[in-house]
Amino acid sequence: MLSDRKKKILCAVVDSYIDNPTPVSSKDIQQEYLSDCSSATIRNELSTLESMGYLIQPHVSAGRIPSEKAFRFYVNELMYESNLTTAEADLIEEYFSRKITSLEDVMTAVTHIIAEITNYTSVAVKEDMSDTITAIKLLDLSNGKLLVVIVTDARVLKDGMVDIPDGFDGNMIARAEHWLNKIFRGKHVSEFINFDYPFALVNDEFYQYNALFKKIIDVLKKVSLMNGMDVEMYGESKILQHSEYSDAGNAQKFLEQVENKETIARILTNDGGADGSVTVKIGADENAPEGCAVVTTRVSLGENVSGAIGVIGPVRMNYKKVLSVLDKISEIIIDLVDSKEIK
User: Fold this and answer.
1) Domains parsed from the chain with CATH numbers
2) From residue 99, how far is each of 87, 91, 153, 328 by CA, in Å?
3) What's the CA dihedral at 244, 248, 254, 257 to 10 degrees?
4) Cα–Cα distance, 241 to 228 (Å, whole number)
5) What is the pLDDT of residues 138-186, one digit of tens each?
6) How confident is the model at residue 328, as a pLDDT?
7) Is the CA virtual torsion 45, 49, 50, 54 positive or negative?
């Protein structure tokens, strides 16, 4: 538990470091944030915060910089809401006043305006789960594995494999396939994605294969999700404008990490969040790219179509601005979808 004074000092260090990525000294804090505290008192508190893992001292004679732990505490406990400037709000309205008739138009507009205002890499993900399942196939590959295939009225999804247990012969595969089709044929993929495995629906004769059925369900969900995703990304080069990536090696590593759009889409959508939920992931321990933060807002894009908008940037991110931008844009998306003007 941090005292109020420690919280104020930690907040001052984070805010200062976000504005200017140089070590923060006790003198800086006293002059800019806490004039009623002596420099000696602030130094003692900084030392304690460092021992607690919130601060790092790059050099003996230098000030401190926040750790990822500090940024997490800042986002959870210290950060206050920030409003967009009039110019930023007007710019967003201008982008969305242009002719937008499709979800693809929305995704393009979203990524461009987010990157322009925040100066970070922006991402928009659309998950279209409106397909109707027409068949599920289990194909024995004769190597101890089953290929799991979903056929819908719009596509064929066949990227998932599971191991076949010993004793699971061709007749059992056929009966398992029959059971899966009985449950899912005619349903939207979105119903399938939210499906909780119903042990009670499995006949007694299949009880011993419950684990396999669960694996098949999990594979089907994963395959459906990834095949139903469209990913739009913009502003990857924005990262080069931040001091953390002035080093060519760091910049190259970042660009390599965001190159795989499927991985980035999974990062934005694997939180299980409902529409309107906001997620902040900081550092590799929280499933963000190493050395980065990812801020995401989940949005509804229509019936059986959901999505996520967000940014990827350095851990030293202006979280207040990012969250205010995402909040404003998600409101506009809701209005567009509700107005039925986009398809």
Assistant:
1) 4-78 (1.10.10.10), 86-127+230-338 (3.30.450.40), 133-227 (3.30.390.60)
2) 21, 15, 30, 19
3) -160
4) 33
5) 888 888 888 888 888 877 877 678 888 777 788 888 888 888 888 888 8
6) 92
7) negative
